[in-house]
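Batch job 17 of 40 flagged for manual review because the log was empty.
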Amino acid sequence: MAALTADQVRQELFMRINHAQIHHDLLTALRQCTATQENLVKFNRNVRFFSGVDSALFNSTIVLLYTLYERRSDTVNFGRLLDLIQPSITTEDMASHTKSLEAIKPTWIRVGILRNEMVGHQTLDRDRAAVQSKANLGFSDVDGLLAHAKDLLFDISCRHFGTHLDYMDDSKSAVAKLLSRVAL
């Protein structure tokens, strides 16, 4: 089978970013719903279901975010996309994209801690709470990572592929509609 082209990698990154955004929005909305006493009672009646959903959405978001920025040459990630387009872009553009990846690296490393020590693997050195404390990754960090990924891929797509991306920006309202229809 032939390796993916740069455009195919770009399209796959776009899909991964959209999936991560949707899963993150669902997780955020699910956790915010428990802020009211009425919803908390409903959720507690179905704790196994909602606990499983919460865990699945969290794990999926972490894995998707991790894969966007990993540096493996045999997977879909930003580094691979830059490797594929490097021969056809200016040195300045490559330096700009590389600098952007370096700027977000500290946050990505914290995602990696969760992925490597709790989600993808379970370390024997720490319990889940200690891993979460070590990673110190909040919802605002995930929001920032998603915004960075969207901005970077938008920039690459506009500059080097002559196209722009239309990210899903209504997933929060779609989640709200869905949760309002769920009979708990």
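Reviewer: the log was empty due to a logging misconfiguration, but the result itself is present. The first helix runs from residue 6 to 33. Unflagging and moving on to job 18.
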